[in-house]
Specification:
This protein is 59% helix and 9% strand. It is an alpha/beta fold and 413 residues long. Helix 2 links the parallel strand 4 and strand 5.
């Protein structure tokens, strides 16, 4: 490769720098974030020897956006450089701590020139895998938004209507349950809730989807919503009720978004060739499987071995050694989305796999705390997943968790 391109990305424009093998600047430009700007960038690269068989590699500080998607479509190597890493490289080129967009583009180009092997290219995932990633990540974001909206509404209700939380708190979903949301929309203040008749409560329960033991639930709500509690002044209480309705609309929108995106994620995931293998693992369903596929992709060359995938998922520990001091610590720099689904995966696997449960119990007996044992189980499962995807095999309990024949083997597992 005779040329290396660095792009300092911005929301409305991008600075381009192309250097040769000695670090000399070959070309520089500032392009707009438009189709015309992309054409200008491709012309600059063509002038520096870019061809379909020998494309000029590009370094940029993001893996998202139309510019990155368009460059990936050309088949060229794209390196998404962590901004913190780029900042460290900047000190190699200037000690005065000066900074400019052109200098940042030069730094990115020189990263490829000197240390391309130390950085990872964006994976060549299929179009379907990229679509699953968009949907699964959006669904996870919607779940976080739903939780945030629910927490805001719960905090607000504690300030003037704690009796409602006590009345609906028996259900696992609490404020997120359709019955709770339907009741709160009909009676957002303690006074309105106390005036609900049994007939109105029965109608609201049916509207929320309740089908069994309606009369018993009506009597319970009719009694608990009338329990005396501290009250604000009438006008203040009414104003807080209006705020509740506004917060409830946000929660309703977040719930609808999370449900719709979950359905779309599952539908797209189930059409992928890897779906059958991924869901063959205990603890992984269609939605959690979609989240796993979204983060690891379907480019088999992305991870050379299971160790790379384990490090990416954050399940493999980090060893720090200096002289006689050696410490093994949990990995902090990782794919947080994959690590998040990993803990749920490990927890669910223990309920569906005797081998997974036995592995967790052995780690606990060896002295691990719950989180460490769970992370170790996730480490084992993600390694098995890499093997199964690489060889096109479904999960096999006897292979993943062979019965130990000697005591020291059980601890080593």
């Amino acid at each position: 490769m005779g040329a290396f391109c660095g792009i300092d990305w911005a929301s409305d424009h991008h600075d381009i720098a192309v250097v040769d093998e000695t670090g000399s600047l070959l070309a520089r430009a500032r392009i707009d974030d438009t189709a015309a700007g992309l054409d200008q960038l491709l012309r600059i690269l063509a002038e520096q020897g870019d061809t379909p068989h020998h494309p000029v590699p590009v370094a940029i500080e993001t893996s998202l956006g139309l510019l990155v998607a368009s460059l990936r479509a050309t088949g060229r190597p794209i390196y998404a450089i962590n901004p913190m890493a780029a900042a460290r490289y900047r000190d190699r080129h200037t000690v005065s701590r000066k900074k400019s967009d052109h200098l940042d583009a030069m730094v990115l180009a020189n990263i490829l020139r000197t240390d391309a092997a130390a950085h990872r290219q964006l994976p060549a995932d299929s179009e379907l895998a990229q679509a699953v990633a968009v949907l699964a990540r959006a669904q996870q974001d919607a779940v976080w938004d739903r939780t945030q909206a629910g927490n805001k509404l719960t905090s607000h209700l504690r300030a003037y209507f704690p009796g409602f939380l006590a009345a609906v708190g028996r259900r696992r979903e609490g404020i997120f349950h359709p019955i709770a949301r339907t009741l709160l929309a009909a009676a957002p203040t303690p006074g309105q809730a106390a005036r609900l008749t049994r007939t109105q409560l029965r109608t609201l329960l049916k509207k929320a989807g309740r089908k069994n033991t309606i009369d018993k639930e009506v009597e319970r709500l009719h009694s608990e919503l009338r329990i005396p509690q501290m009250r604000h002044l009438p006008l203040v209480e009414e104003a807080m009720g209006r705020q509740t309705l506004a917060l409830l609309r946000q929660l309703e929108a977040a719930c609808v978004s999370a449900d719709d995106l979950a359905e779309a994620s599952v539908r797209a995931f189930e059409t992928h060739a890897d779906a059958e293998i991924i869901t063959s693992f205990p603890g992984l369903g269609p939605l959690s499987g979609a989240r796993v596929l979204a983060e690891i992709g379907d480019d088999r060359s992305r991870f050379a071995d299971a160790r790379g995938l384990k490090a990416y998922a954050g399940s493999a520990p980090v060893t720090r050694a200096s002289g006689k001091s050696v410490s093994v610590m949990a990995r902090r720099v990782k794919n947080q989305r994959l690590a998040g689904v990993g803990y749920m995966w490990a927890f669910a696997a223990m309920a569906h796999s005797d081998g997974a449960r036995a592995h967790y119990d052995r780690r606990r007996e060896a002295g691990d705390r719950h989180t460490a044992a769970q992370r170790n189980l996730f480490n084992r499962m993600i390694g098995c997943l890499h093997h199964c995807l690489t060889h096109g095999l479904p999960f096999d309990e006897t292979v993943a968790f062979p019965t130990p024949t000697e005591p020291h083997l059980s601890l080593a597992a």
